[in-house]
Amino acid sequence: MTEFVLVRHGETDWNATHRIQGSTDIPLNDLGREQAKLAADGLRDIVWDVILASPLQRAYQTAVIIMRELGLDESVIVTNPELRERSYGLAEGLTMTERSARFPDDIWPDAETKEDMNVRVGAVLHELALTHTGKRILVVAHGGWIRAALRIASSFDKKISDAHIANASRTYVYHDGERWSVGEISLISSAILAE
Q: pLDDT tens across 115-150, in order?
């Protein structure tokens, strides 16, 4: 069984103000850095065979902080551009209210389609499952990326793939050599909950 633990990055200022980030490269804020430290609590005492991160700094910074908390060197992190968040084109930087006002038809110029995102994420997951069969894989990425992974792993079950993915949360996906399955979704440290 190949186990994927998908970690969403910690909070950014744009998360805090409900702005759409997408491919815009926004760093973690102070709370996000603290969340990344706390996220490591659920990842301790596990031997990770592969550690991957999106190259966008909010995800990469989260991965680096987690590695430090686990006593690992950040050199073990492999960045993969296919782990980046979905591009929302001209909607990036807008709040949800601003986006609805500017694009009432929900069509965002220059955005990556959900279908293209599914293809991109599915290809990465299948490649990782094939090349790292039976391994434990940590992926630090983004909420939209993780929801796409859930679409793939759940055969597009909306109840699963529409789940809220909290900042610094852990989501579990498995591949048994033939089929995908979904474990727990959006687990967060009790210390993060207490903040």
A: 999 999 999 999 999 999 999 999 999 999 999 999
Instruction: Please give the structure tokens belonging to residue 68.
Output: 């430090």
| Cα dihedral 58→59→63→68 (10° resolution) | 0
* Total-model pTM: 0.94
Does 126 qualify as catalytic in the annotation? no
Collapsing DSSP to helix, strand or coil, 138 comes out as strand
77-79: strand order across its sheet: 77-79, 50-53, 136-141, 2-8, 170-175, 180-182
The structure tokens listed for 193 are 């909950």
Q: Which of 3, 11, 34, 85 is catalytic?
A: 85
Domains in the chain, please, with CATH? 2-193 (3.40.50.1240)
CA end-to-end span of the chain: 35
Model confidence at 194: pLDDT above 50? no
pLDDT tens-digit map of 88-107: 999 999 999 999 999 999 89
Name the active-site residue from 3, 9, 92, 175. 9
DSSP-assigned letters across all residues of 66-97: HHHHTT--GGGEEE-GGGSPPP-GGGTT-BHH
User: Do the beta carbons of residue 99 and residue 9 sit within 8 Å?
Assistant: no
Active site residue 85: yes
Cα 64 to Cα 8: distance, rounded to the nearest angstrom: 13
